[in-house]
Write a structure and sequence with these properties.
single chain; mainly beta; 10 Kd Chaperonin, Protein Cpn10, Chain O; six-stranded antiparallel beta sheet; elongated
Length: 90
């Protein structure tokens, strides 16, 4: 399934990966806070008031409580407004 953001929305994926022990056990991330650094997966076309300033593949910093969390094909994403993106990571 593919999700195409509309207007000034941006689909981002948490940049942190699951933590795994040396023996291969995946540690729970349920109690961890949402990462502020995310990878841009898809972008909407933008609006006159909010032109798109990010592209697919950019690594960005988003506000801690920004966006709507979405689970798609067992992967967690967030759908955020372009105005909720605070910075690009270079």
């Amino acid at each position: 399934m593919k999700l195409n953001p509309l207007a000034d929305n941006v689909l981002v994926k948490n940049a942190q990966q699951e933590e795994t022990t040396a023996s291969g056990i995946i540690l729970s991330t349920a109690n961890k806070e949402k990462s502020l650094i995310c990878d841009v997966v898809a972008v909407g076309p933008g609006t006159e008031e909010h032109p798109m300033t990010v592209s697919v593949g950019d690594r960005v910093v988003v506000g801690k409580y920004a966006g709507q969390e979405i689970k798609l094909d067992n992967v967690d994403y967030s759908l955020v407004k372009v105005s909720d993106i605070l910075a690009k990571v270079e």
